[in-house]
Amino acid sequence: MQLHLSTWTEVEAYLKKSQGIILPIGSTEQHSPIGLIGTDAICAEAIARGVGEATQALIGPTINVGMALHHTAFPGTISLRPSTMIQVVRDYITCLAKAGFSKFYFINGHGGNIATLKAAFSEIYAHLEDLQISNAPQVQCQVANWFMCSSVYKLAKELYGDQEGSHATPSEVALTQYIYPEAIKQAPLSSEVASGHRIYGATDFRRRYPDGRMGSNPALATPEHGKQFYDLAVKELSNGYLEFVNGDVSG
Amino acid sequence: MQLHLSTWTEVEAYLKKSQGIILPIGSTEQHSPIGLIGTDAICAEAIARGVGEATQALIGPTINVGMALHHTAFPGTISLRPSTMIQVVRDYITCLAKAGFSKFYFINGHGGNIATLKAAFSEIYAHLEDLQISNAPQVQCQVANWFMCSSVYKLAKELYGDQEGSHATPSEVALTQYIYPEAIKQAPLSSEVASGHRIYGATDFRRRYPDGRMGSNPALATPEHGKQFYDLAVKELSNGYLEFVNGDVSG
Amino acid sequence: MQLHLSTWTEVEAYLKKSQGIILPIGSTEQHSPIGLIGTDAICAEAIARGVGEATQALIGPTINVGMALHHTAFPGTISLRPSTMIQVVRDYITCLAKAGFSKFYFINGHGGNIATLKAAFSEIYAHLEDLQISNAPQVQCQVANWFMCSSVYKLAKELYGDQEGSHATPSEVALTQYIYPEAIKQAPLSSEVASGHRIYGATDFRRRYPDGRMGSNPALATPEHGKQFYDLAVKELSNGYLEFVNGDVSG
Amino acid sequence: MQLHLSTWTEVEAYLKKSQGIILPIGSTEQHSPIGLIGTDAICAEAIARGVGEATQALIGPTINVGMALHHTAFPGTISLRPSTMIQVVRDYITCLAKAGFSKFYFINGHGGNIATLKAAFSEIYAHLEDLQISNAPQVQCQVANWFMCSSVYKLAKELYGDQEGSHATPSEVALTQYIYPEAIKQAPLSSEVASGHRIYGATDFRRRYPDGRMGSNPALATPEHGKQFYDLAVKELSNGYLEFVNGDVSG
Amino acid sequence: MQLHLSTWTEVEAYLKKSQGIILPIGSTEQHSPIGLIGTDAICAEAIARGVGEATQALIGPTINVGMALHHTAFPGTISLRPSTMIQVVRDYITCLAKAGFSKFYFINGHGGNIATLKAAFSEIYAHLEDLQISNAPQVQCQVANWFMCSSVYKLAKELYGDQEGSHATPSEVALTQYIYPEAIKQAPLSSEVASGHRIYGATDFRRRYPDGRMGSNPALATPEHGKQFYDLAVKELSNGYLEFVNGDVSG
Amino acid sequence: MQLHLSTWTEVEAYLKKSQGIILPIGSTEQHSPIGLIGTDAICAEAIARGVGEATQALIGPTINVGMALHHTAFPGTISLRPSTMIQVVRDYITCLAKAGFSKFYFINGHGGNIATLKAAFSEIYAHLEDLQISNAPQVQCQVANWFMCSSVYKLAKELYGDQEGSHATPSEVALTQYIYPEAIKQAPLSSEVASGHRIYGATDFRRRYPDGRMGSNPALATPEHGKQFYDLAVKELSNGYLEFVNGDVSG
Fold first, then answer.
1. Does residue D251 fall inside a structural domain?
2. Whether C119 and B122 lie within 8 Å, measured CB to CB
3. Is the pTM of this model over 0.90?
4. D35 touches chain C (CB under 8 A)
């Protein structure tokens, strides 16, 4: 059940049987000359919808711009500052918690979002208690990173070994190829690829990773691989969501 | 050309011939028991993509949650506070302006976004000048509301007369039916519908407009109408975009 | 009844019979070499006081600096950023709402304030509900622009035709001449005057409108005209205020 | 020379001979059942205009709402939060400093503004240096409290002794009576008046100072006294302004 | 009793007999070539601990970075902006007030903190009332500047006369020598020392006070003097704290 | 070399040979009835000083209050909100980067700080580039958690096995006992201890972890263990710091 394709009366009915909602979150950032700028949002959204079908969970609107300041030296990247993103997530959860939602499961497609999301969650719990919303003590937020699913990680290593890298990876590119076969890109990539540098500011990042790849070879991606990753991630995160939403509140 | 389906190298190439970008912006808010919660984002995104095809413009990621605080007494609504939205739009435009974009055309699906967008634009122009970005004096933002296109307005009046109303209108519902025929909703609506009240806070809004409609009869919508609205809006806003982006910078 | 000339005990008594207050808001910005920098605040304040006399409404302190970032390339202009102005208006209304006021009627002298005021109102309604102030659901804000009164508009067209323009207009200059006859300015104006350009940032604005006028000929203003505008605006906005404050709260 | 009664071309000419500006700042807060809510703004504005006449200084718009949170349990009080006020003052000075002003002399009518003003000044100096405004290192702000002028203080002690008190004082009330003789109030005051309590929050303040006076007897005020205070303050602050604006920049 | 050396159960027990807490606040800023960068925090912390021993008060963590923007042109200085510091103090007091504390006594070592602290207190009282914390109306904050103790001031004048100056004073340097005899510094100081200039921005400050001293001769300091200052300050502030915390709440 | 025990001239000299600085960061939060509220700050500060001695690095002031909102239902806990902490860290690094520092090594004693610190770093890199500080592209921040040192982790497992737990651990308590032997606490602890629950808001946390321990048995701690942990952490983080600060800037 997708929120944007539902009516408020359907949401009202849903809330009688579940207080859980899945929020896909990605990023709009360079993914090398082969990967799509929307990769992280595309993956998170597709998997979230798959999870929604498998679990009857409500899927909220995709947060398609995240925390990608370190990629902003590449054109086409859009990023929220962390302090903006905290306010955004706060506004989302405040609205939904007032309506009765209490279990927020973020299916995330971008490593750069994790720290800010976790910071936001802490701020939000305190904010909701300050607002004295009746269900504030029950509100729980969790971030589930599809690319860190053990089954996904295992397959990526099998298929690509070290060439999986850590940004613009063949696994995420494969997933976008499965979802958007009409947008498969070809571009020459140098056989050498930088890797191993920590991430600091945007200028530094582009200097160290001149084509945007971090140790990866996205040219290895195929749509067929993408379907495999999709299936694995949907299955693992469906279980993750159900555990989260059915978790014993009393501990 | 859609940003999320492009690579950074394609964006780099695009910037050599155009500094314009279209940003669809909608809302996630109740649209009566018949209209979809994602109506405003769905419409803005679809029309923006149509305009993109017609004009070769780059289409950025859809801002699918906007300023809908007055709808938040209905479950499923998510809203940014205006001060959050100003920061969000600032972050988007700052990233894109640094990359070389200077003409920002917001195709908007929600009347409630207009004031905050305009406030944001003013704040952003000053911010970019403070940052001393070289193209700061050239940056221009414009909001284009598809539902205020004269051709759209005229057709809505012809088809629905007074039953067009001003929220959860048959015209916008029709457009979503054309785009998502699988999500056409049926629900009983009272023949009486409230209208004419000004918009204040969320509690007041729900009291005055108990099912969420503002003078409208969305049951009149059909997917065929939706296609007509789509075609008209795409045509009119394509012209609008080209005028904007080709405008004489020197005045 | 003017707030700054009243005591708190008089306000306490006033609140027993009315919860309405009028807040004049203007701007401190260039108005061409002939118009006063304080034009918008002067006009709003004078008309608000006239409305106060006609309706027995309480008139709050004039917000004399508004949102004029686009005029800041001319010396003497002072502007709040929109995000600052939202906080300012929030602080005003929060104080007054806690004291029992619920109907806030902003008599506005500057078009550039409208978007930010409306954004502020939305933020404030939600803020007051979050604070759980008892009268939060009753709080209503409205912006009334004297220069958009139909009677004012009609007279301006009769007197000045196209030379009314849209900034540093003869109508507003006339009104300041009526109020401050000792501050009537003379300055040579070019016969050519720029018009028709949209408003973007401050540098762009000054380039397009080098003397600050937007299609207007303020030299046509006379104090006698000013009195006519004053009388029309006071009459029309007195009616507007009474309708607002006496509006059926139940819809 | 008053900014609101000047044109931008007059300001441009002024800046060629002086970079100083006087900004009156008051408050909108209870001043007992006899003192006007606008007392602090009225006094600051009147004295600033007198100083302007005596020194040819430019007088900016009066900041008529200041930091009066501790008075907000009395109806009619409006206060900015300190963090809002810092942003407001920052916006004022940033606009004016970009235009070429560098000496900001705040004539202040309210003790509660002092701390926040000083905090704001510190923030602003750093902000202007961050913006790399060319005259940033020359920018100087000073707050001059008319009620702390030694000549004023001396006269108040002579006229009223201990009954001067520290809020809603006869000296400030006298000054408003001189300026607005039509708004002289009469109200019974208890002969006992609270004094000596420190200022904390609003609820505490009203409990300790139930009619709003702090050790004062404003019934002693006369318009004639007011004129004396006005003359003394104008003279002393005129000297203060000239010293400030002519101060040796090199130390 | 020091908070950082206590357990939460000890704090719980403490709260049953006292709702007072002492918060030392200093700064991290240049103190001439002889004075330690941590001078203000060292002094505040040491004195606070002495007061804690004398009065059984709980001593919170030292705020060791304060408002020192004007010293930032000297390397090693770290400063909060005033608007950040307001948020920091707000967060501290909100946590502690929710736990039951209501009397906050800031022992301060830096004049530059005073204005921002006072601004913060005003903001916090209002914030706590907005949160509807039960003890909000009882919350009281006070800033006690050890260097302004009358006994300290008197001794400094006796020992150093005019060479006490107003920054990097021999009295504060002496106190740090008493506390950290291992960190007594020697450095040549010019016999001429600047004094009498007002404090504006950082660039201006360093230009006027090139070695960081303001009229002082810190070479006069000895650890023995330091012990005297320590004893005087502890005694005077212990009395101050007890008066504050035992103050008649009803006035 | 400790910043608070240095002079600005010593810092100036230091900067000629190193641009690195270590910032200890802890927390002020409950650590069970046995662990000190200052545990995280005490550990981070002590280890940082040890690292400073071993590497000649400059050690900045300890950030002794961090992000501990989830512990705020226990009295004595003080926490910054994440959005406040981002501003604090931004202010620190901005001051220090302007002075010439570029390598910021945070020795951290609290897991709850990590996410917010990382979010802050991202915000800061972009902020410094916006300020156009010359060394902005060289600025690098890193967080080093002493409790996650592999040698520390290994010893903790050897000494305590599963009773190490994840909050109020015997390893951190042991370290505080080594540093403050005079503050070793005794208190009865239930043999049962909650574990395995995720961390959400403060009310939820206290309900799940009623005495504040998370699966740990801090009664196992001894000062001798503490010394071992101290030595291991100092050694491992000294290496970590040197690698960081000597890292090949060119990648």
1. no
2. no
3. yes
4. yes
